[in-house]
Amino acid sequence: MQETDEITELIDEISFRKSHSKDYEKMSIEEISRELKDVMRFEQESIKKIEKFEKIQHNKDLEEYAKMICKNGVQREIAKIQDAYLRKIDEEFLDSK
User: Fold this and answer.
1) Where does residue 77 rank: exposed (0-12), middle (13-18), buried (19+ CB within 10 A)?
2) Is the sign of the CA dihedral 15, 18, 24, 29 positive or negative?
3) pLDDT at 55 (0 to 100)
4) Which of 40, 35, 45, 21 has the alpha carbon at shortest distance from 81?
5) Taking 70 as the threshold, does the pLDDT of residue 97 lie above it?
């Protein structure tokens, strides 16, 4: 039962990740790049934790839900970051030429 509590906590951590409320438009290119790396690292760590749960428990529904939440949340955040990153590059480098 403890494993179920741990994966539920991981789902909550993924769902309520605070970085989605950041204003990427106000950040520099370097800050946005760091944010992208952080999000990707968070995704990798979350997937590793989910895979660990798969080995020690057999609650496929909860594991699949955790993977779906992780993938959807992280991909949404990456899309926001990439949009801001490309806009910044366009403003700073392409418009200046």
Assistant:
1) buried
2) negative
3) 83
4) 35
5) no
Chain segment 29-78, per-residue pLDDT in tens:
999 999 999 999 999 999 998 888 888 877 888 888 988 998 998 898 89
pLDDT of residue 2: 67
Q: Print burial letters for 23-38: b (CB count within 10 Å at least 16), e (below 16).
A: ebeebeeeebeebbee
Structure tokens at 46: 């979350």
User: How far apart are alpha carbons 12 and 8 in whole angstroms?
Assistant: 6
93 CB-contact burial (10 Å; exposed 0-12 / middle 13-18 / buried 19+):
exposed
